[in-house]
Amino acid sequence: MATTPKHDERIATMTFASVYPHYLTKVEKKGRTREELLQVIEWLTGFDEHKLQELIEQNVTFQEFFQQAKLNPNAQLITGVICGYRVEEIENPLTQQVRYLDKLVDELAKGRKMEKIVRA
């Protein structure tokens, strides 16, 4: 399923700060920790806890968030379906990066082992 330009634009302008609490709630409901969530985000983006907090306070959009990120070279190993889209087939690079993050959070919430999540 291909994304539409409207969908891609909506994702680009969404703020990371508006989505992060949902990520945290999702993983904590399933017995995972904030520290594990931070580990997953740092693996994908290179952002440590301090930088992540700074980006949340600046209310950056996902576009700004991923422009500043140093995407992990193994990110392309993230595959599967999230939100009805097969992540490896998403053509818009930013939308794909956001869905990579969504997929990692989903895997964490589903109890997958950290070594598998970070493609070690």
Automatic annotation (TrEMBL):
Specify the superkingdom: Bacteria
Instruction: Report the InterPro entries cross-referenced here.
Output: SP1917_dom_sf, UCP033199
Q: Which Gene3D superfamilies match?
A: uncharacterized protein sp1917 domain
- What is this protein called in UniProt? DUF2200 domain-containing protein
User: What species does this protein belong to?
Assistant: Catalinimonas alkaloidigena
